[in-house]
Amino acid sequence: MEFSDGIGMRGISRVQGRKYVCCMEYGRRFGHSFRTSSTNVARLFVYLSLKSEKNMMKEKLVFVTNDDGYNSRGIQALLEVARKFGRVVAIAPETPQSGMSQAITINNPLFLREVSKGDGVEVYAFSGTPVDCVKIAFDYFLKGRKVDLALSGINHGSNSAANILYSGTMGGAIESSFYGCPAIGLSLDDHSLEADFEAAKIYSERIVRAVVEANPPTPFCLNVNIPKGRPEAVKGIRVCRQNKGYWREEFFRRHDPRGREYFWLTGAFVNSEPESTDTDEWALANGYVSVVPVQTDMTDYAQMAPLERILG
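Structure tokens predicted for 5'-nucleotidase SurE (312 residues):
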């Protein structure tokens, strides 16, 4: 028996009942002509299984990390999204690593352990930073395999404006982009332990799908921030630029029971351009998902010519 793609089938075991009827209907639907014998139906089963294997080989590989830890609610939401696009391997920090940016561990050993495996999703906890997780994934665990997409998040709290410079979530995304696959950092503008991730899941899937279908040239990295609230409250998606705002820190001095001085860090965000309507801060404040394309070239090109005159 020969099908249209040239796969020849030999007689195999008997197949009966409902599966027989389903296979006959499949054959008619796709224009395959064969006698209604159990041997031919069995042949079709083998044919379908081979086709399934071919499709599995084409399935995309998605890498996932974050900075809130392998068991955070945000990464659980992101794993749901990622699985819709292929097989998923997640390597995330053993403990929360917020504010680690692109820090790496060089003076301590690192430990990797399997958390769960099944249904096309593998989750591992790693004792390092988000960037350590990326490096162990691409340079060791997944070495030699083509990673089609890297996702980092979903972070508790936004990473708009200057937050991107401190963010472990975006550190993981940017580091992933060095390895030649599209990378997306995703954050929800809500620090609450009871944060509603439904809108984040919906818009993350929408943006990821658009990127996958577009297959953009690399390096490619996005900083995506989703506003707090229910999905119906989100007004849409805005492609925008990074706000130029920054943080002003304040340290509170205290003393422990032994009289030793210690400090607690707090602070407030300063929006240095509140009137600008093309920034990620404005988009979030007005109910839009902000999407900022980012790059690692931090050169201030406007200052190059003046510097050449000053220093020349």
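DSSP finds nine helices and eleven strands in the chain.
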